[in-house]
Amino acid sequence: MADWYAVSDPRQFFYGAYVQNRAKMQEAAEHSFSFCDKRNLLTRMPEALQETLLRLLVPLRHMELGANMNNSSIAGDAVAGTVTQMHIYQAMDRLGMGQYLSRIALLIDGSTGEALDRSKTYWMDDALWQPLRKLVEDSLVVKDWFELTVLQNLLIDGLLYPLMYHKFRSWLAEQGAEDVSMLTSSCVTGTPNPAAGSTPCSRPCARKVMPMPSSCSAGLPTGSRGSSLPCSRSPTPASVSQRWTRWLANSTSG
Question: 73, 84, 108, 204: which one has the fewest Cβ atoms less than 10 Å from its Cβ?
């Protein structure tokens, strides 16, 4: 790279715009959790379905903590302010996602913490999770920031998020647990279902997008250091992975 500042965020998220956007998302998320809590929507689900959530969904909070640590590490080691900025925002987003997943478990057990302990046991001991757990733990000792962002934001997130927040969420809806969708909506805002094709944003920041996953924030590098109105669509791990996919394609083709 001749100029790492050519890597800029098409969302044009600076601190003020980022905080305002996340404040609105947090307000919507709090409303959703309060709605489910007051109506006992999760505790009224069959016990087998509750256990499925604790085994297959809630353990992702440990992966989110790993993603938070990885993106924080990248922000500390990257060589351009534009790169560090998008990664520290991503790190904070992942911390919030992990907290939302933890709150799902607390809704199930009435805030006793017992469900969190069970989900942690699945993460630590269930053979289903051990390959991902090993990958997350191995990623924590990757020193090269560029290698780490490719691993975390392109490979892990690019494969895991469509599976868990599109495929698995659709399966939950078929089982009568569509209420879970409103509690994970903050994780997938801006990343439409890959099966439905791309849905780019209509704002000026939109770029040509790939079939999966897609968001209005796709398209690196922009080559612009100027400011513009921030896009209101939410950045997600899937959207970050797409931005890096396009950026890698552009940088290697040159």
Answer: 204
Round to whole Å and give the CA distance between 96 and 56: 19
Question: How far is it, in rounded angstroms, from Cα 228 to Cα 170?
Answer: 36
pLDDT, mean of residues 172-196: 71
204's CB contacts (< 8 A; 6+ apart) are 228, 229
Nearest Cα neighbor of 187 from 170, 169, 209 is 169
**pLDDT value at residue 212:** 28
Which among 23-32, 53-62, 79-88 has the top mean pLDDT?
53-62
44-53, 199-208, 230-239: range with lowest mean pLDDT: 199-208
Distance CA 172, CA 166 (A): 10
To 10 degrees, what angle do helices 114-125 and 81-109 make? 120
- Residue 197 vs residues 26, 109, 158, 209: alpha-carbon distances, Å: 28, 37, 16, 10
